[in-house]
Amino acid sequence: MTMSSHTSRARALTAVVVAAGAALLFPATASAHVTVSPATAEPGGYARVVFRVPNERDDASTNRLEVVLPTEHRFASVSVQPVPGWTATTRTEKLDPPVKVGDRELTEAVTAIVWEGGEVAPGQFQEFPVSLGRLPQDERELVFKALQTYSGGEVVRWIDTPAEGTSEADHPAPKLSVKAGAVASAPAPAAGADPLGRVLGGAGLVAGLAALGLAAVRRGNRSAPARTRPAEKVTTRV
Predict the structure, then answer these.
(1) What is the pLDDT of residue 186?
(2) Which string of DSSP letters, residue by residue, matches the chain?
């Protein structure tokens, strides 16, 4: 193998390593969105859910979150867990006619929860815990529309549901699936939620790929036939 072939091979391996590193360290920000955890809950009971909010902007902080509760099912009980630095308020509305939930008849229900006063800086995320009950007795999917406000005034509306025939929406709304036999499990962190861990993990993998590439190039160098100098002409005098 010639030196030019070795050089081309090394460049190709370097390109692969760089591409892999870029994919790990600089993921698309569109994959990060407001989510609810756990994603499933048992029918008819109470659930503690957490709304996870990542910051997708490099030049602004998230300073307000509004979560709109589903109107197709009214909750008899809604309570929030304090989040340091944030103030939570609820909005309610009168129900006419009243709605029966379990053994209670509701004349008023919470329609939305608003958190303000805190800050989610770039590269960080925040979780907002809420207790909800009772859940519907039948199996269904509850959609919680979320409005994320940034310090610059931008409002990102996480209110979409996937169009028919597609698996994802542009700005998906957090969804809680109510079904029997649900197992509470926290989802994987949103893209961008743990930047330090992503950078360290990605750097480690990139280093490993680079080492493998270098080893392959060295093996190629060792297996290449040695270049020999042409034999010198010897003149013998008699």
Answers:
(1) 38
(2) --HHHHHHHHHHHHHHHHHHHHHHHS--GGG---EEESSEE-TTS-EEEEEEEE---SS--EEEEEEEPPSSS--SEEEE---TT-EEEEEEEEEEEEEEETTEEEEEEEEEEEEEEEEE-TT-EEEEEEEEEPPPSS-EEEE-EEEEEETTS-EEEE-B-PPTT-S--SSBPPEEEE-TT----PPPPPTTS-HHHHHHHHHHHHHHHHHHHHHHHHHHHHHSPPP-PPPPP-----
